[in-house]
Write a structure and sequence with these properties.
Hydrophobic Seed Protein, alpha+beta, binds adenosine-5'-triphosphate, binds magnesium ion, about 450 residues, Hypothetical protein af1432
């Protein structure tokens, strides 16, 4: 990808244009992080870019952005531009093609506004980005208040970059963020969701959420979470602090240092898993009670699942993510009863698509608790591995989804999944042994 983007820059330069890497990738390079993408800026106008580069898509030609496709990678190539006026606090009303310096000035933070010429190994820095990188400062380019008023999402971007990169706020940055948090209400749910996903997936997510709380941002976007602050827990089980402290600690258990050294099939934690950890105890505020001097939260998982669904729907998450988080929160107290279940019931749970994530919610929940006890987690993980290894050798499925649809004359849907799970369980407990028996069972039990 890197090499290809250098080739594009070479092509543009040979035709007499200025061309550089810009923004995020230059910052990441200086931080020693692998950039996600290599955005290119150039003095060439969109028509000229299209003429010089073989395969392009005019994704945002109006804004001076052309997408180049080369060697199976895509690159954004943007003409130097300045923005004039942001009447909706989001997108510029109009753009104007300008020079490199003005293009740097329209960007949000100094660390995000550097250019780099990979052919000459030269950084082009009009905004003091290199110095702020050294001092680890998140500083708005120009007047902080004006920049926040132009695009309010920059409030959340500041929190993200500061925590993600372990930096600090320039005093002006923090001051004007705090002053204008209310503008967050004007940003669309989709943009907030996207930025929160980046915050929750980045380094120092726990600290970032602490700051979202302290600045008052959280109260404007997920007020339900703020109720966990100061919410008491039974001291004999929870010495880490209140429910909020516990939640933050659980979230931090997904960081590299706190990862399980022997994880279940190693994979990057999903967005649903991260949100489930953040929201797992969200039901505790509404279910708090004191019974014979003991603090209880009866049904907090079920209540929490409903609240989680409401929050994520409001933030416009895809239905698949909402359903998964809802399921994880609803069942996050399952591990204790699960160890006592009969083998076939256990297997039924092990085969659920979200089981590995559910176990991970349990692990982070335990790590967020002081004193920490991971013995149950280790026990279940071992059993799960053992069973899954066995199940791989298991006899084939007794019936397929399509056959059930034909037998019952119904369309694809959740019901099929439920019937398949039911049959799987009967098969595991030896109550169904062959195809004939299974077809009869399906007809007897499910045919209306
Ligand atoms: P990452 O891709 O790692 O999330 P990034 O800094 O590359 O971070 P992008 O959203 O990819 O962020 O944007 C690329 C560049 O465009 C940024 O580095 C910045 O210079 C500029 N930019 C992005 N969003 C804004 C904004 N809201 N206001 C001003 N400039 C922005
Ligand atoms: Mg980027």
């Amino acid at each position: 990808m890197k090499v290809t983007s250098i080739e594009i820059i070479e092509t543009l330069k040979k035709a007499g244009h200025e061309a550089y890497w810009a923004g995020g990738c230059v910052r990441d390079m200086l931080l020693g992080i692998q950039p996600k993408d290599f955005d290119i800026v150039t003095s060439a106008k969109p028509d000229e870019i299209e003429r010089l580069i073989k395969r392009t898509i005019p994704i945002g030609k109006k804004f001076g952005v052309v997408l180049a496709i080369q060697n199976n990678h895509t690159f954004e190539i943007a003409t130097f531009r300045s923005d004039s006026g942001y009447s909706d606090g989001r997108r510029p009303d109009a753009i104007e093609f300008t020079d490199a310096k003005k293009d740097a000035m329209r960007r949000d933070f100094t660390i995000n506004a550097m250019f780099y010429d990979p052919l000459e190994d030269k950084i082009i820095d009009y905004v003091g980005g290199q110095k702020d990188m050294e001092d680890k400062l998140i500083r708005f380019i120009g007047n902080a208040e004006e920049r926040i008023k132009e695009d309010h999402l920059r409030i959340l971007r500041a929190v993200r970059f500061k925590n993600n990169f372990g930096m600090q706020y320039h005093p002006e940055t923090y001051r004007w963020i705090c002053k204008h948090v209310k503008l967050i209400k004007k940003i669309s749910a989709e943009r907030i969701q996207d930025e929160l996903n980046k915050i929750i997936s980045g380094k120092n997510a726990g600290k970032a959420f602490e700051e979202l709380f302290e600045t008052g941002i959280l109260n404007l976007i997920i007020p339900e979470l703020c109720k966990l602050k100061g919410l008491a827990q039974p001291l004999q089980y929870h010495q880490e602090g209140d429910v909020w402290d516990h939640t933050v600690k659980a979230l931090d258990a997904l960081t590299d240092e706190a990862m399980d050294p022997d994880p279940l099939p190693a994979k990057e934690p999903s967005i649903a898993l991260r949100w489930a950890i953040l929201l797992h105890d969200i039901g505790k505020y509404d279910t708090f009670s004191i019974d014979r001097k003991r603090i209880r939260y009866d049904q907090h998982a079920e209540v929490g699942a409903d609240i989680s669904k409401k929050i994520l729907t409001r933030l416009k998450f895809p239905k698949k993510t909402v359903d998964m988080v809802e399921w994880l929160v609803r069942h996050h107290m399952m591990m204790m009863p699960l160890v006592k279940m009969a083998d076939h019931r256990k297997r039924h749970w092990f085969l659920m698509p979200g089981f590995e994530d559910l176990l991970e919610v349990y692990r982070t929940d335990a790590l967020g608790t002081n004193p920490t006890d991971l013995s149950l987690y280790e026990e279940i993980k071992k059993e799960y591995r053992h069973e899954i290894a066995k199940l791989k050798l298991m006899p084939k499925q007794l019936i397929k989804g399509e056959d059930i649809m034909k037998l019952l004359n119904i369309k694809a849907g959740k019901k099929i999944g439920k019937i398949l799970a039911d049959i799987r369980e009967k098969q595991l407990s030896n109550k169904l042994k062959n195809k004939k028996e299974t077809r009869k069972y399906v007809l007897d039990k499910y045919k209306k």
